[in-house]
Amino acid sequence: MNLDLSGKRALVCGASQGLGEACARQLAEQGAEVVVLARTEDKLARVCQSLAAGQGQTHSYIAVDAADIAALSAAVAAELEKGPMHIWVNNTGGPAPGPAHQAKPDAYADALGQHLIAAQTLLHLLLPGMRSAGYGRILNVLSTSVKAPIPNLGVSNSVRAAMANWAKTLAGELGVDGITVNNVLPGLTQTARLDSLIGHIAQGSGKTTDEVSQGMRAAIPVKRFGRPEEFANAVGFLASPAAAFINGINLPVDGGSTGSL
Ligand SMILES: NC(=O)c1ccc[n+]([C@@H]2O[C@H](COP(=O)([O-])OP(=O)(O)OC[C@H]3O[C@@H](n4cnc5c(N)ncnc54)[C@H](OP(=O)(O)O)[C@@H]3O)[C@@H](O)[C@H]2O)c1
User: Fold this and answer.
1) Whether residue 143 is found in the same domain as residue 214
2) Residue 182 CB–ligand 1 contact under 6 Å
C-alpha cells in the first residue's frame, strides 16, 4: 500500500493544536512538506519545528485569521509562489455551542464566513496547482453532526451540513483531474475544543466536568474519547496515493458513536 507523500506539499489549516496539529504530524511522517496555518504564531512555530523532517523536507507556517478573507487570501497566495499544494486539510475552529433557535443571525454569518467562504477562497487558490500536478487531496475536518445533528451545537450543525454538501458537489466535479474531496468526521476526541465543550455542559447542568466527561465516554461504544493521532491516521491514508479511488465520502472517526450509517 503506497502511503508515501515524498515530494508532496500539504497545507494544514487549524494546525496550531488539536486535530490539525496531529494531521500535520502524520503528513510530515509520511514525507510531505507541510505548511501549518492558524492565528497563533508562537504555537505554529513550535509545531513547525517539531514535525518530522527527512532530507530536503522543510516545513513552514502561515499566521493568519481565516475569518479575515482578504488576509487569508493574500497569505496563502504568497505561500503558493514557492510551489503548489497537493494536499489540503481544511480545518478551523468550531462555532460556539448553544441551541439553534437562540443563536444570533450574525453567528451564522460569521461561521459561514470562517468555514464555507474561507474554504471557497482557498479552493480557488489551490485548485490550479492541484490540477497541473494531477494530484489533489482535499480533506475537510467536519463533525459527525453531518450524519446526525448534535444537540446544543446549532450553528455548528448547520455550517457542517453546508460544508458537507459543498464537498460532495466538488467531489463530482474534480475527480476527473485526479483530485479527491472527502470529509473526515471527528467524534469526541481529546483536544482543547472538547475540554471547552465539557466545561460548557458542566456549567449548564450543575455537574462537575469529571461527571460530564464520564457520561460522554460511557455513551461511546469503545468507552473512551478518541486521540488526535487516531483521527490523523485516517487523514494520512486519505491523503495518500493508496486512497485514489475514495472520493466524496463522509468518514466518521468516532469509536462507533454515530447512530446512523
Ligand atoms: N475535538 C472534538 O471532539 C471534535 C469533535 C467534532 C468536531 N470537531 C471539530 O474539528 C475541528 C478541529 O477540532 P479541534 O478539537 O482540533 O479544535 P481546537 O483544539 O479548538 O483547534 C482549532 C484549531 O483551529 C485554529 N483556528 C481557530 N479559529 C481560527 C481562525 N479564525 N483562523 C485560523 N485558524 C483558526 C486554532 O488555532 P488558533 O487559535 O491559533 O487560530 C486551532 O489550531 C473544529 O472545527 C471542531 O469543532 C472537534
Assistant:
1) no
2) no
Contact between 26 and 1 (Cβ < 8 Å): no
The answer, yes or no, to whether any atom of ligand 1 lies below 6 A from the CB of 26, is: no
In percent, how much of the chain has pLDDT > 70?
100
Mutate to test the pocket of ligand 1, among 11, 12, 19, 89 (most ligand atoms within 8 A of CB): 19
**Ligand 1 binding pocket includes 39 (Cβ within 6 Å):** yes
Q: Which residue's C-alpha comes closest to atom 1 of ligand 1?
A: 189
Is residue 152 located within the same domain as residue 233? Answer: yes
> Which residue of 73, 91, 110, 201 sits with most ligand 1 atoms within 8 Å of its CB, as the best mutation to test the pocket?
91
Whether the pLDDT of residue 135 is over 90: the answer is yes
Q: Please check whether residues 127 and 217 belong to one and the same domain.
A: no
How many residues are listed for the chain in this entry? Answer: 261
Do 220 and 237 have their domain in common?
no
C-alpha 1 to ligand 1 mean position (Å) = 31
Q: Are residue 133 and residue 239 in the same domain, yes or no?
A: yes
Q: Determine which helix (DSSP H) or strand (DSSP E) holds 124, and give its type and residue range.
A: helix 118-133
User: pTM of the predicted model, to two decimals?
Assistant: 0.97
Render the burial of 144-169: b for 16+ CB within 10 Å, e for the rest.
bbbbebbeebbbbbbbbeebbebbbe
Number of domains in the chain: 2
Q: What's the CA gap between 229 and 234, in Å, rounded?
A: 9
Residues 194 and 83 in one domain: no
pLDDT of 56 above 90: no
Name the residue of 11, 39, 43, 65 whose CB sits within 8 Å of the most ligand 1 atoms, as the mutation to test its pocket.
39
Average pLDDT in the chain: 97
Q: Are residues 214 and 97 in the same domain?
A: no
CATH, residue 234? 3.40.50.720
Residue 254 and residue 144 in contact, taking contact as beta carbons nearer than 8 Å: yes
